[in-house]
Design brief:
Elements (H helix, E strand, L loop, with lengths): L10 H21 L3 H24 L5 H22 L7 H25 L7 H23 L5 H34 L10
Helix pairs in contact: 1-2, 1-3, 3-4, 3-5, 4-6, 5-6
C-alpha cells in the first residue's frame, strides 16, 4: 500500500501539470474546428490521468500535492470540454453549471472536513457513476462533431438529461453525507483520522 509524501516534484505531479497545460491546445484546436485533433488531445489527457494514478500507487509516489492537484486538473478539464461543447449545443450549459456548483460546494465543504479529520474522503459509487456518464456524454458529442460535423439532437438531449440527473443525484447524496459527517464531528463522534 502506498503512503503519502510531502514531495512536490514527482512523475505523477508532472503528468498532472502536463494535463493542465493540455487544456490550452484543446481549446485552440476545438475553436478552430479541428475536432479530431481536439478529441485526440482529450484522449491523451484521459490516458495520462490513468497512467499517473498507476505510477503513483505502484511506485509509492502518492503525494499530498498530488491528492489535491489531480482532482483539480480533472475537474478543470471536464468543465473546459463541456464549456467548449456548449458553443455547439447550448443545453450543455445545464450540466456545466451543475458541475461547477457541485465541485465548488463539495470542494469547500470537503476541505473543511479534511482539515478536521486529517485525511481525504474517497469518492462514492454515485460520484464515480456520474463521472463515467459525464465522459460518455462529452465523448458522444465530440464523436458526432468528428464524424458528421454536427450534433444529433436526440442523442444530445438523452445524454444531457441522463448526465444532469446523475450529477444532481450525486450532489444531493454528497451533501447528505457531508452534513452527517459535520454533525458527527461537532458531536465529538468522529475524531481526527478515524473517519472513513
Amino acid at each position: 500500500m502506498s503512503t503519502s509524501s510531502n514531495k512536490i516534484i514527482t512523475i505523477p505531479n508532472i503528468i498532472s501539470v502536463f494535463r493542465l497545460i493540455l487544456i490550452a491546445p484543446i481549446f485552440i484546436t476545438f475553436l478552430n474546428g479541428h475536432y479530431l485533433a481536439s478529441l485526440i488531445l482529450i484522449v491523451v489527457s484521459g490516458v495520462s490521468d490513468v497512467v499517473d494514478g498507476i505510477i503513483a500507487r505502484k511506485f509509492g509516489m502518492v503525494s499530498e500535492v498530488g491528492k489535491i492537484l489531480d482532482p483539480i486538473v480533472d475537474k478543470l478539464t471536464q468543465i473546459s470540454i463541456i464549456a467548449l461543447l456548449s458553443s455547439k449545443q447550448l443545453w450543455l450549459l445545464v450540466p456545466c453549471v451543475i458541475l461547477i456548483i457541485k465541485e465548488l460546494t463539495s470542494g469547500f465543504i470537503g476541505l473543511w472536513i479534511v482539515r478536521r479529520i486529517g485525511h481525504m474522503l474517497w469518492a462514492d459509487w454515485h460520484g464515480k457513476l456520474s463521472t463515467v456518464f459525464l465522459y460518455v456524454m462529452m465523448g458522444a458529442h465530440m464523436l458526432m462533431l468528428v464524424i458528421t460535423g454536427e450534433i444529433n439532437l436526440t442523442i444530445s438531449y438523452i445524454t444531457i438529461a441522463v448526465s444532469t440527473v446523475l450529477m444532481a443525484l450525486s450532489f444531493t447524496l454528497y451533501l447528505v453525507k457531508y452534513i452527517g459527517i459535520i454533525k458527527q464531528i461537532k458531536d465529538g463522534k468522529i475524531e481526527k483520522k478515524e473517519a472513513s
